[in-house]
Amino acid sequence: MMHKAQVRFFVPAMAAITIALSGCTSSGKGVMDDNGHRSDVPKATVVGKPVTCLPIASIRQSVVRDDWTIDFRTSGGKWYRNTLPNRCNGLGFERAFSYGTSLPQVCNVDIITVIINNAGPGPMSRGSCGLGEFTPVELEKKR
After folding, report:
1. In the chain, at which end, N or C, are there fewer CB atoms within 10 A of the end residue's CB?
2. Cα(128)–Cα(70) distance, rounded to whole angstroms?
3. For residues 131 and 84, is the Cβ–Cβ distance under 8 A?
C-alpha cells in the first residue's frame, strides 16, 4: 500500500504549491500500542546535533513511522528523525500529512496536518500537531 506525504508551502507571491514527497510504505507487521508507538519503527543511531529546520528542496522522502515519529531522507541519502513533542493522533494510521510555510524550509515550529486519504471524494484533514527538532540519524537496516 502506497501513501504520499504532501507538503504545502507558499512562495513569496503567496501562490499555493503542493509538493508530493516520495511515498511511505507500510509492511503491516508492526502493531501500534495504546500510546501511538509502533513496534516496527527502525532503531536510529544519532550521528550529529539536531537542527531546527530542513530546506524543503533537500527533502527527498518522508516516512511516517507512528503517531510520534517521522523520518526525512534528504539529498545525499542523509536521514533526519523528527520525534514530535506530543502525540499526533491518527498520523501513524493515516501515514500522510501536509504543512504550510512561507519559507523554503520546514522547521520545528511548523504545524503538520494529518491527511485522511480514504474519506470520500478527496483528502480531508484530521488534526494538527507540532514538529520537533530534526536529528541526523543512521537507521538500523532491516534483517
Report:
1. C
2. 14
3. yes
What pTM does this model have?
0.75
| Higher pLDDT, residue 101 or 30 | 101
Are 52 and 84 in contact, with CB atoms under 8 Å apart? no
Q: Cell numbers at residue 9, please?
A: 508551502
- Identify whether 103 is part of a domain: yes
Three-class HEC string of 30-89: CCECCCCCECCCCCEEECCCCECEEEHHHEEEEEECCCCEEEEEEHHHCEEEEECCCCCC
With respect to residue 113, please indicate whether it lies within any of the assigned structural domains: yes
Q: Is residue 142 part of a domain?
A: yes
The boundaries of the domain holding residue 94 are: 45-143
Domain count, the chain: 1
Burial degree of 8 (CB within 10 A; 0-12, 13-18, 19+): middle
| Amino acid of residue 18 | T
Q: Quick one: cell of 49? A: 546535533
